[in-house]
Protein: PorT family protein
Amino acid sequence: MKKILTISILIAAMLCTGLGATAQNRYGVIGGFSFSQASEVGNRGTTTRYNAGVTYQLKLPMGFSIQPSLMYHSKGVRAGRIADLPGTNMDLTIGYLELPVSFQWGPDLLLFRPFLDVTPYIGVGLNNKISCKGAAEAESFTGKNIWQAAGVSRMEYGLGVGIGVEIWRFQIIGRYNWNFGPLYRDNPNIDTASQAAWFMENAFGEGGNFKGLTLSVSFLF
Structure:
């Protein structure tokens, strides 16, 4: 799956380069909010984060368009009852440098353009924050930018599906995203004595990753 997504993103980039001279294209800025939680995990609620970056739209014939973006995307999860222990919970936030490529189709209705959206994406983690709370106060822990020592996977890849509308220079998209692969990865550098590693393994050791809704607005020049 990861190879398929990477290949599709590379093909889209080559299409944008090869067709950019003949097709209508526009640059823009993009930003919005993410409402995320995690799969395979007992969630305590949805976490609201944000995303922002730059985008490029390549319009093709018959209502199709390709729109890659480069953005900072913050995602979070609020997990509860870690290892099925009451009173234990963990808040995890990861900020990714993300490359989504939106494949869109929709008819141009002159005043506006509604469209369907399918978006594979890949990303790399730039920063994270882990806040853990155990049953006892002494078991609480907060740390930043802990990766291998806690088993936090730095790479991400996934797929988003949604709908959008384009009015003049503005574009609004609602999209549901699924990160694929495990968020926790065992490795020789894990600090087995650390609280962060214990919480990560017991929350995500059997799978689970980010999923959720993003709402974004683009302004195209």
Notes: Residues 2-19 form the longest helix (18 residues).
